[in-house]
Prior knowledge:
heterodimer; A: Rossmann fold; Rossmann fold; 2 domains; 13 helices; globular; B: alpha/beta; two-stranded parallel ribbon
Amino acid sequence: MTGRKVLTGQHFMHGDHACAEGALAAGCRFFAGYPITPSTEVAERLALRMPQLGGVFIQMEDELASMAAILGASAAGARSMTATSGPGFSLMMENIGLGVMLELPCVVVNIQRGSPSTGLPTAPGQSDVMQARWGSHGDYGIVAYTPWSPQEIFDLTVHCFNVADRYRVPVLLMSDEVVGHMVERVVIPAEEAIPKWDRKQPDGKSNGSFKPFQALDPDLVPPIVHAGDGYRIHYTSLTHDENGFPDLSPENHHRLVTRLVQKIQVNADKLILTEDYYLEDAKIVVISFGSTARSARRAVAEARREGIPAGFLRLISLWPFPEKLVQQLAKDADAFVMAEMNLGQMVHEVKRHVHQPVKGVFHAGGAMMPPEPILDAIREVASGGNGHTRG
Amino acid sequence: MATAILADKHPLDDLIRAHRMPNIWCPGCGIGIVMRCFAKAVLESGLPADDHVVVSGIGCSGRVAGYMNLDSYHTTHGRPIPFATGLKLANPRLMVTVFSGDGDLAAIGGNHLIHAARRNVDIKVVCINNFNYGMTGGQFGPTTPRGARSTTSPYGNPELPFNLPYLLAAAGASFVSRWTTIHVRQIQEDILYTYKKPGFTFMEVLSPCPVGFGKSNNINEGVDEMELYRQRCVIDPSVGLADLEIDLREERPIYVGRLVDRDLPPYRPVTLVETE
Lengths: 391, 276
């Protein structure tokens, strides 16, 4: 282990460690966390590495504090991150809402385990994906990505920081225990090849007209100022006006909350990431994400060998959901298959955008989903089987 | 012959957001008194105002952040201390004051309070103790005396309250003091003193809440509670921390003063990089 900022080169690396290295490569210099399986290795790696780079690693008293601390660090201008799993993610919901309201960039990693409650501490789940979208109270927009390999954990962690800074929003990295604890080849690029998007800064200082929560650009993202910049800015979790001060009128509340939601909607095309295989002529579209997507791709390849015109769409961004793409696929497809390690969550998003039957392949979690049940589902819909979950 | 002195500017004008006045506090409330002491201490701190940051939680005292013309953060209920911890560690140049109430800091935020004291993070906490949840209309909280009436303890509070200086001393704070809103010079001096003292410092300031606490407990006006402080406050270094319990309704001393002042290593993130 060296003190290099970016560990350029080829590695045989643990997923959680790849997440930590992605954060460091992205310039994250503040990590606050609380030990929880299966995300603890992210914290352990950063406890070792942050001191080498002059960054801050702090172990907080709980996840409420961890989430609050990374927002405070972000308010001071740092790229900041925390990492957790199900029960900790629930505690973070409170201050994820604060991050949304104050528009403070940060990255929250959730290495999902089987849930609800304490559930399966050392085994996988994908059942926090709706909580990622809706878990904090109120209306808001959020961004969440989901990796399927240690390499992609590295790449997406970097990307999460860039998106958070560019759009002033907490960004969630929704991995699962399989990918978090998987050891695979990870190629880390040269430092100069790591993409870096900056926070939008105001152009003129103290010209009297600067309103810190006024979004003048079409992307609806106001420029950000930090503590100590000399603006003497006010940030409040209350509904606030464009100057940052409380204004609890219904008109102002509607204006602010609408912008927080639309900020993600109007930029959705830039935020959405997907990958597809054999989709060009697909009549059966299989959709999956995270570790389950590894089995889903295998099942689709097997189906093709059997002559079934199946194709595969992998969700890399869960939120925003690629609704336009799914609507497009629905024009030619006969049926959809949705595979996920929960009892049916993202399937509802698919159903909202297609008129075909959607066959769900669900498991509550505890072990990686094998290809067989997905292949069985593909065969079933290919033979006209009526196993769909519509209705 | 006397000459009129015309002043078009008050020394604190630069530190108070006048355009946010009038404030939301009730007549007789003591929070404004403490905020003025805070502003005077910032003015006299010798640090540029741009280097001061105030972080607050939710409740009446939490509104101080909105009225001080500093970089100010009005966060979530109970969480100003961890927010301030992140802010301070990310930019150690800043002087970070947490200004909030007893319910915010000692009930919903109680875990953060003791752990920040244990860690000895270099943040300055000013805790307004008005013995109840004022913003929500006068419910009992972690400092409400046993037997005191509130809207959620109509038959008297069945719980024992925290003795905050005792708690903070045990948790490891470098500095702990207690004053009341009649001790404006001492409050100001102690805030200034804590700005020169590295580590976690905690000041409890007893403050009248005639609308929330007083009305239910036979203390009619804010000024009546101030008079009660004047009559009963005692500085007695021989009194142990365990004996600092307060019950405004009883005829016994309210012990105030600088209670803990010790040099402990402040929290520094582990680093292998040579700095400075």
